[in-house]
Design goal:
The chain is of the alpha+beta class. The protein has a domain of about 110 residues. Helix content is about 30%, strand content about 20%. It has four helices and six strands, in the order ααααββββββ. Strand 2 and strand 3 form a beta hairpin. Helix 1 packs antiparallel against helix 3. The longest helix has 22 residues. It is globular and about 50 Å long. The two termini are about 25 Å apart. About 5% of the residues have low confidence.
Length: about 160
Amino acid sequence: MEELQISEIEATFTALVKQWREETFGISSTNQMSMHPAYQQIIGMGKPVRAAEDDETWWWPDQFYWPLSVPREETIEAFQQAFETLGYEVCQGDVLQEGLQRIAIYANSNKVPTHIARQLPTGKLTSKLGSLEDIEHNNLQGLTGNPGYGEIACIMKKLISV
């Protein structure tokens, strides 16, 4: 993917965050804020389909696919359980190790998951921005902050064949 495409995606994300903040400033209803068109587009950019290693099915508990054995709720615990169905377990650290694949679950300040990134064999990470482009980024911190996907709430790993 060309650098220009990544820059365009980042610019779109930043513009949507700015629009949402400006147009919802002073609104106290979380329902109104979450139903704003810009917010809906932002949410659409963060489905963890790439982390789930599934390029066809979108994973998210309130819509799309979600493992039947896992509560359909947007909590860190539910996301951990969902990825446990794929063989992941909670771990510390994001250092690339042969034979392991890692994911990072991002969450906002309310501890609500917002995004998942999956580590590639090269050490870079891949993310799916909704119906937009798949991107690669160099480190986990590249998507944190404000605007961004919040902070890293959990790192998980699983064994892979080398």
